[in-house]
Design brief:
17% of the residues lie in helices and 20% in strands. Strands 6-4-3-7-8 form a five-stranded antiparallel sheet. A hairpin with an 8-residue loop joins strand 3 and strand 4. The longest helix has 28 residues.
Amino acid sequence: MSRISHKTLAALPSNSPQSSPTFGLSSTYFSSVNMHYIQYGIGCLVSLLLTVAKGHEDKLFTRSPAFAAYPYPTFFIECPEIGASGSHMDIAHAHDGSGYFPELRWPITTADTQEYVLLCEDPDEPLAAPVIHGLYYGIPPMFVGLHRSDFVEADSRNDPYRLRGGFKYGANGGGGVYLAPQPARGQGPHRYFFELIALNHTIDQSKLSPMANFDEIAREIEGKIIGWGEWFGVIERT
């Protein structure tokens, strides 16, 4: 599998930008942290400007009461192949092109993490609720990144919703593994939020439908959330 794990990072040279920070807290580390905050600030500014124009960001799942204890992201998510949060997604990541799932990376979160859930939402559709473009659960706690090849369906007749990355996908607005962005022409820019949620207990999959839906996942993660991070990309079709 192409997923990125702790061992992958450990194999990188000490001066690699993807290496984990050491207890020495070198100047390189502080520069990296500062860059994270700068990128996060830029992303927040872009998001704020678009929110003022459209006003739907408060409907995202991570803005719901279930996240009252964690109203703000607790860790950063990067997308090396596109750029900082708020960057424009290229044609390769759009429905009009190849529809690739963006590569995501994040730091080791906490030893208490038992599972990750990943959700992709578009809050800028003129609808009552954000459109779900992707829903994934059972992501192993040792993962620190995902590649588009992880989102290919595994050849498993007994477990039809399992992906090659070793986790499962649920229902979205398109019916497949991932609904690639395709906003209506002339609607202006749409944001696609990739929200990664850390849980301190695994989801009881026996309580889910074969193809789990959003409401089921939301119910199962209640009281288990110990942090989250997000990255969003922007697409506009004129």
